[in-house]
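Please review this pair:
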Amino acid sequence: MSLSGKNSIAGELSAEGSDVFFSVDPRNKTTGSLPFYNATRAEVDRAVNAAAAAFGEIRHYPSSKIAGFLDEAAEQIEALGDDLLHTADSETGLGLPRLTGERARTTGQIRAFANLLREGAYLRAIINTEGPGQPAIKQMQFPLGPVAVFAASNFPFAFAVAGGDSASALAAGCPIVVKAHPGHPATSELFAGAINAAVAAQGFPAGTFSLLQGNGINVGQWLVAHEAIEAVGFTGSLRGGRAIYDAASRRPRPIPVYAEMGSVNPVVITQAALAARADEIADGLVGSVTMGTGQFCTNPGLILLEDSGASRDFISAVTEKMEAAPAGILLNESIAAGLNSAVSDTVTHPQIEVLTGAEAISESDYFCYRNTVMQTTAAAIRNDDRLQVEHFGPVTLFVVCAGAEDLKSTVDALEGNLTTTVHAEESELESIGGLLHQLREKAGRVIWNGFPTGVAVVHAMQHGGPYPATTAPGTTSVGMNAIYRFMRPIAFQNVPEALLPPALQDANPLGILRLVDDVYTDEAV
């Protein structure tokens, strides 16, 4: 597939403006030769209006038709072959093995949503039959409408043009307008071609999908402000997510913004765990912090433990292992600059001690930052929430607590996160419960004797958490429940059977599982 550098609006290439930008190879900092055109406001309007028109048709499609489209999209992505992998590698430096696995995850989650639609229970059909003093009420989920999706930088497949936000919105029956990430514009255009091919092959309206390029804030702001956009999916920084959330709130008719904005993912390590397997935990921690050069939203950036000789030895061991681990490639100049700025601000705090790193490798031919370990006190964390800022890279901060009560008080002071983790022993089960419940209140996922990097695309996954990790802690951006961000329940009271959707008809023609008078059944009423 040849690249154009243009926006893809309802299946048509468009380059109405003159403002362009270029991709950059992070391995050598060289600029590509193909210009990518920033979308104009008129192009944004056209894309959203096409999505609104498409929704007028798609909203009436049966789940089986949407499932067929999702399967087709997965096939078209796979048909891009190695061209997709090499293009993404040249724009991100992530390497072919990582990208091959991420492609499988991406197409796998698209197909998982297709299977969800075919099974049917996702509609959450509820029927309360008429009774004494009670009308007949029936409820199910319906799509919201056109959705704006902001692609992430760190997962150019799984959280980008065809990633989880896009897959869940399309599965819900919502057309999408995707704002491509400027860090991988060519990769984004390849994905756009695959999705457009699926749209054509399945006979969907052209406005089902559009892709807008842009390396500034204007395109995103115009997109969120458009009156026809009904919801926003975002994965990125706190600053970016909050700006989008605020823009959506300023609209005459505010809309939901499902922004996943990263976190420091606190890890608590008990003294018993250190006594039993300090070396194992150290190896796992260093592997988790440096995985993907630390550019995961689930990077363990805050490690809490009680002060002791064992803790000091553990911190020293982790520091040595971080020093020995090779420095990885950062995705782009913006991330490198942001990481340098965040760490530079942190180390100015008088209670921060740098144990290793805390500087960019300026002499490197690629975007790079030294593996970094810092240390502070529990009192410092409690007294200054600036020390809970995310360092998006191979960086972690040890928090040394005076004792068990000091540690618990520090956990109480933690902000919202995507994950929290406990490393403890079976002998501590009776005493650790209170701490585990404390950590539960601070995140969407609690991990026992593991590490947070790695998010499974399964029904039970919760990838979300209290602010500032996300703007909507009751939702997830990973797993099958992500679909409900882009749907809303509608109840029908005493509506004639002939006017009800099949999922709510007494005969249950779809054969799906429903909640009928408080009992789950797939039988007819």
Summary: The longest strand covers residues 137-143. The mean pLDDT is 97.
